[in-house]
Amino acid sequence: MTADGPRPGDEASATPPVVLIGPMAAGKTSIGRKLASRMGRTFADTDRLIALEHGPIPEIFAAHGEPTFRQWEAETVRRALTPGTVVALGGGAVLDEGTRALLRAHATVVLVTVDAIAAERRIGGGGRPLVADGIDAWRRIAAERDAVYRDLADTSVDTSRTPMAVLVDQLEAWLVERGL
After folding, report:
1. Are the C-beta atoms of residues 31 and 157 closer than 8 Å to each other?
2. Please, which residues have CB within 8 angstroms of residue 121's CB and are 6 or more apart in sequence?
3. Structural domains in the chain?
4. What span, in angstroms and rounded, lies between the C-alpha atoms of 15 and 142?
5. Start-to-end CA span in the chain (Å)
6. Coil, strand, or helix at residue 154?
7. What pTM does this model have?
8. Which of 16, 77, 116, 165 has the smallest number of CB atoms closer than 10 Å to its CB?
9. 179: left (phi over 0), alpha (psi -120 to 50) or beta
10. Could you tell me whether strands 42-45 and 85-88 are parallel, antiparallel, or unpaired per DSSP bridges?
């Protein structure tokens, strides 16, 4: 998390965290960082926090396997879900039942979607162990997780073609309208 967010006692610290979920390469981090900045909130990216604590995610997968990564991910999500924050979760974080329960009970959840064409452009740089084989792997994983994402979401935005600034405007308005 960054140190430039609200402090305990600030109005934002009394609001539930806004959590961005969705498939890899959807733009959760980009939207989350901009939304947090705009609303004066702390931003946390759970993949970044895991990497800071345990090393690069591809190396975690190679050395420890996906089950260990998922355990560390669930612990990181629990620590990141604090009032007044905006939190971007890794695409598979919602696979953990405990994480899903926390989101349902304590967060406002935004599903960030993207179509396969836009996702393919974004995953080209590598560094994502589950989609090392390319867009077909991304499609399969996104389809497997879609029902879970939709079940948890309070609202959704699609980043395929809409500029990030417009999406942040829409999300901010939606949150303000609900007193969040």
Report:
1. yes
2. none
3. 15-173 (3.40.50.300)
4. 30
5. 20
6. coil
7. 0.87
8. 165
9. left
10. parallel
